[in-house]
Known about the structure:
By secondary structure, this protein is an alpha/beta fold. Helix content is 36%, strand content 20%. Helix 1 (19-30) links the parallel strand 1 and strand 2.
Amino acid sequence: MRRILVIGYGNPLRGDDGFGSLAARYLEERQIPALEVLILHQLNPELAELLRGRNHVIFLDAVAGDDPGTLCATGVEPCDLSSSGMHHFEPGSLLALSRAIYGEAPQATLITATACSFDHGDEISSELREAAARAAEAIASAAASGTFDLETLAAALRERR
């Protein structure tokens, strides 16, 4: 069985920043055997150990932009750790730390949704709730097909518009 880790992160008390957590919850409810799902406030160095031995990791996060609810899948590569802070990690920093400590980093995809608002409050906009459901469906579809790569995930996101 493939070892796939899905990490949904963001601050659920900052409006649409809760997208990653919501999408991850939708996946968690499906109980897909090929997936392990984590819901976090933010990425941190301690997560590097969880990347060891994984085939793929999918990060779910909200971003600022002009077209709310737009989903985008991009590949993630390990970055230069010397430019990363140790208190707030980006996906590339986490991959680099895993490679530095364990000699390996899995393939990784970042799925983002363009947010409407990062204002204080726990209400996620309808656009981002819909985007979370579409992202979860795309990941579930990839799990059903057994194919986790950037092209497959990006195509699945486009199909669910």
